[in-house]
């Protein structure tokens, strides 16, 4: 099965029960610009998201694929651009039957297995791409050589909280050293 360029959403009626469907995500410039804005990126290039959607049971499907992208984010310290290459495997199971949630208390817990999704009328390939990319992005990208030497926090007009003041027992340790 050669991959065909797919739109960002695959309708279930296009999936054939006995065979798999290959996908190769193709995004427009407008869709890429939307993802850049949503994920607070500086740029997004060399996008690749392809794989197969195969039946795994009565009405259930498994998406398996490879995601790749080159992203540019602002350094968390200096705001200079930081480029990263993301390459990761993706597996999602779409279940026709309702996914069981832990309902022991007033709040519903999300199941630990985040590869399980409720099957709807469409499989949102672009949504899976965005979610997977978002989880794979570096949390605090740093430019080469960028270091946080000291931090002071406080609202305007208030003496900022320094690293030293945040350690209340450091003064006692200094006093103890002087007494010995």
If you had to describe this structure to a student in words, what would you say it looks like?
It is a single chain. The protein has 180 residues and is of the alpha/beta class. The protein has two domains: 5-148, no CATH class; 150-180, no CATH class. Helices cover 18% and strands 32% of the residues. It has three helices and eight strands. It has helices at 29-38, 125-136, 170-179; strands at 5-6, 9-11, 21-25, 43-55, 61-74, 81-95, 116-118, 122-124. It has a six-stranded mixed β-sheet, with helices on one face. Strands 2-8 form a two-stranded antiparallel sheet. β5 and β6 form a beta hairpin. Residues 1-5 have low confidence and may be disordered.
**Order of H and E elements:** EEEHEEEEEHH
Q: What's the overall geometry?
A: elongated
> Largest sheet, if any?
6 strands, mixed
Helical content (DSSP H or I, runs of 4+): 10-25%
- Tally of individual helices: 3
Number of strands: 8
Number of domains: 2
Average pLDDT taken over every residue: 78
Strand content: 25-35%
Distance between the termini: 78 Å
Report strand order across the widest sheet: 1-3-4-5-6-7
Low-confidence stretches: 1-5
Oligomer: single chain
Specify the structural class.
alpha/beta
| Computed CA radius of gyration, to the nearest angstrom | 24 Å
